[in-house]
Each structure stands twice: as C-alpha cells, then as structure tokens.
Amino acid sequence: MIRLRIGDADRGARVSFLPSPERLAGGSPWTRAMTSPWLLIAVVWLAFFWQLGAVPLYDLDEGAFTEATREMLSSGNFITPYKDGEPRYDKPVLIYWAQAASVSLLGFSEFALRLPSAIAASLWVLALWRFVRERLDAATATVAGLAMALSLEIALIGKAAVADALLNLFIALAFFDIYRHRLAPRQGTLLRVYLWLGLGFLTKGPVAVFFPLVVSLLYYASYRDLRDWLRAVLAWRGWLVFLAVAAPWYLAIYIDNGSGFFQSFFLEHNLGRFGGVKHSHGGFPGYYFVMLPVVLLPFTGWFLRLLPELRGLWADPLDRFLVLWFAVVFAVFSFSGTKLPHYLVYGITPLFILMARHRDLLTNRWLAFVPPLLLMALLVLLPELVGVLAGQADRADEQAQFELASQVLDWSYRLGTWAGLLALVGLLLWGRIAVWQRLLLAGIAQMLVVYGVLVPRVFEVMQAPVKEAALLARELDLPTVVYRTSMPSFSVYRDAVTPDLRRPEPGQLVFLRVDKLERLRADLAGHRLIPLYRNGAVALVRVASGPGAGR
Q: Which helix (H) or strand (E) holds 530?
C-alpha cells in the first residue's frame, strides 16, 4: 500500500510516494501506544519536571543565573543584572525576569528557579509536535516529540536554571514560522517570525537572529526565491515588532548602566567567543563530530542511519529545510573558537523531525543500540573508574571529590545502573516491535537511570557541600567572602552578595576550594584560620587574629 504525500506542496517541490509507517506496522497496539499523545505528555513530565527541584543548583552556570535573579529581586533593579555586586553582562534579561516571576509566585527554591526552563522546554516540544502534525501527521509528530524530550542534552537544559531552553523555544518557533510563511505567505505569520526573533534577542542576543536569517537565505536561494526572501527580510512592520519587543530593555540598560553591557556582551561574549576561546572552553577542529553522538543519546544510531539518505532528503522541500537548519548550525560552531556541547542544541530540533519522519529506515538493531549500551556500560563501570582516577588525582579538591564519590556510588547506584543495562539488552533482543519503538523505550530507561540514579549522586558530590557551607554561613550571619573560588550558588544559598577578596580580614568567614587553603594560609600569615566546615571540594573557615595557622 502506498500513499501520496502532498503535505509539503511547495514551489519547486517534488511529490514522493512513501509507504505509510503505521500501515506497515499493521496498526498494532504497540504502534498505537508508542504514537499516543498521552505517552508524549508522560515523557515530557519525566524529562522536564521529574526531579526538577531534587538536587542543588550547579556551578558555574545555574549559580550565576540564579544569583543574578536573586540580586534582581533583592535590589528591585529589574534592568541591569548583577552577580555578587558586579554587573553581569553575559546574557540579556528575559531569563532573569522569568525566574524572578516564578520565584515571586512559588518562593525561592531550586524548583521555582528551574521551572521557567521546564515550561519553555515543554512548549518547545509542543511547538515541534504542532508543526510536524500540520506538515505530516500526528503519529510522526508524537514520535518526533518523544525523541526530542528523551535525548540526553534536551532533558539536561530543560531541567537547568539557565537561558538555553527559553532561547531554543524561540529559535524553533521562528524556524517553524519561516517555513510556514514560505509555503503560504501571510503577514500574520511573518510578524510572528519577528516576534520570536525579538524574544530570542531579549534572551540571548544575536544568535537568535543570525541562524534563522542565514538558514532562510540559503533555503530560499536553493529554490531561486531570493526576491521573496528579501521582501520578508525588509518587511518594515516586522522590524517594528522586533524593536517593540527587544529595544525597550536595551535602551533601558544603556540609560541605567551606560555602554558597558554593549561592549561586554556584543564584543566580548559574542564576537569574542567566536573568534577566541572564552573561559577555557576550547576544542579541536572535529570537536562537534565527537560531541554530536553524545548530545543525541540514545538516538545516535537513528541519526547515523539518515546520513546515507542525504541526497533523497535534499529532494524534499521539508527535509531540505531541516537539513540546512542543522548543517548551518553545525558548520558555524565548528569554526567557532569557543566550543560547548549545548551550542549544538540550536540545530538538533530538525534532526528529531527527520528521524521520526523516516523512522522505518532504522532496521539495524545494533546500530540503534550500541551507543546507549556503551553509555550504560560506562555508568555501570563508573565506581571502578572513580577508583582509578582517584589514584591519579594530585589536587586536594579532586582527591576530596573522588573520596566522596566512592561513598555515594554505593550498592543502590550499582543496582540501578545494572537494571538499566539489562533493560537495554532486553530491548535489543526483543524483536516483536519495530527498532525505533524499542529505542524510544530505551530512551525512557536512560532517563530513569541518568536522572534517578546518576545525577543525584553527581550533585551530592559536587554541589551539596557548597549548599551546606552556604547555609552554615547564613546561620552564623558573619561577614563572608570568597577566596579564589568561583561557585556563585554559594551566594544564592547564603542569600547575600559574597565578594571575592584576595586578602580576607579577621572576623570574616571565608569560603574556598580546599586546594586554596595553603595559599590562604600563606596570604594571611600571622592570622589563625579556624575550620568551620569541610566536605568534598570546599571549606568554610573563619579568620581570627593571632599567630599560627589553624588546621
């Protein structure tokens, strides 16, 4: 049985005859279950809301964003973000406003701070589902949404109190409306594109505008429609919408803070990141070839199966648009001086649509299951790897973290990871349902292990001591400083600005990494350091007058 697919009727489109995936599967109960919107709702909750407030904020990113939000609420200055008393020019303001609104409604907690990201990620999946249902069908839309929500990196940023989920929501909405506008040019659709660009520009700046413009230019050019592209790009009503959304805050921060934000954000944090390495986040030329398979887990093999089909994908208007979207993001960041895994997320939304649309191409179970099996095997072996790495660590903070890790990777951790590995092996061997269906079930298993077993223990090692030290400092209510340590979540939990001083004074509490203790003693020769807290990689000490070095 074949069907005529005309959902992408387009200028220059080629009609293709494709077998119906659902008809090939015989409309089995498993197929109906795996394409049910109810399953997608459950997975969205699992991916973005389950365990949302269960672990402390992580440094640097969550700590920096949330401390800026805390200071915004404390000071009443909703224009210029500050972190530990200094202007924070890393990002525009929208994510801070969203977090501040959530905290004002729900109280200051990890859940409230992360909730805007979880909501944005859920709306991102909804936008994808709606777009794919319009262009293709509801079953394919559900499969695409499941794959996206269950992928390793999407679930991570959907649970994080940072700007990325919000930014990617607006980027995806802009791309979807760009495609809709080319199929059926309407002023309302075009104005929505500019609305999403403006909101994205208010979330993370030029990146939200750059990729939609470049990809749309290449896509229109591939059909020799540059005149239509120019007409859309030069639409004055659209730019009025963009300016109405983004310009007021940019003008306000200039009035409030002068040119500092513009010089730092646009020159240093945008051009500087592309042209050079920021915060030691460099990478080799093939960095993203290595990171892409990790970001897409457990669906790496599903993506790889698409690569031999590139010529056929290019012949279809929708597939061509999706391929260009991914390829431009991948290529641009491959040439960037600063490289981080989450940069790829700007371009992987289209991959989930392509995988879902062509899911019946995935028939090799080994190609599908080897990547997630390797990840799960690594998690099973993690306690042994920690032991090996502990013997090679030479810094005091690393040694302390490995020691704490060996304690938290207990029998329950081993039981959980072994259960995950056996579940994946069982899905590999179970041949009664399609490979893509088994891989989605593997994604659920991966989610349960990563966020139910692994992440709580990682945060117990890396962030729980920071939170405990901060709460103790808050209880003692003494002047507190940080010494050569960048962990801004300490200020969040202490509920106060914590300046970074190179020479603390007697009577002050000092928060620092344990490998900085000897240097602090040398800097404060003639004063005593009274230990108050030490766990994992961090310590809290009090500086007292008098000779000697307390230990």
A: strand 527-535
CA distances from 272 to 162, 253, 262, 264, 460 (A): 21, 21, 13, 9, 34
Would strands 509-513 and 480-482 be described as parallel, antiparallel, or unpaired?
A: parallel
Structure tokens, 232 = 């859309």
Domain layout of the chain by residue ranges = 1-25, 273-362, 365-462, 465-545
Report the alpha-carbon distance of residue 454 to residue 379 in Å, rounded: 8
Residue 330 Cα distances to 79, 215, 275, 340, 345, angstroms: 33, 12, 16, 12, 10
* CA–CA dist 239, 187 (Å, integer): 13
pLDDT tens readout for residues 304-332: 999 999 999 999 999 999 999 999 999 99
- Map 248-292 to HEC letters: HHHHHHHHHHCCHHHHHHHHHHHHHHHHCCCCCCCCCCCHHHHHH
Q: State pLDDT tens for residues 216-254.
A: 999 999 999 999 999 999 999 999 999 999 999 999 999
Angle at 270 between CA 159 and CA 352, to 5 degrees: 45
Q: How far apart are CA 227 and CA 219, in angstroms?
A: 12
pLDDT at 525: 87
CB 253 within 8 A of CB 261: yes
For residue range 259-299, what is the model confidence (pLDDT) as tens digits? 888 888 887 766 755 554 455 555 667 889 999 999 999 99
The 10 Å Cβ neighbour count of residue 487 is: 26
d(CA 344, CA 326): 9
Return the pLDDT at 406: 93
Spatial distance between the Cα atoms of 97 and 339, rounded to a whole number of angstroms: 27
Residue 68 sits at the vertex; the CA angle it makes with 65 and 70, to the nearest 5 degrees, is 110
Strand partners, 530: 542
pLDDT for 265 equals 82
Residue type, 475: E
d(CA 454, CA 390): 18
Q: How far apart are CA 87 and CA 100, in angstroms?
A: 17
In which residue are the tokens 């909501």 written? 119
Nearest to 545 by CA among 517, 505, 509: 505
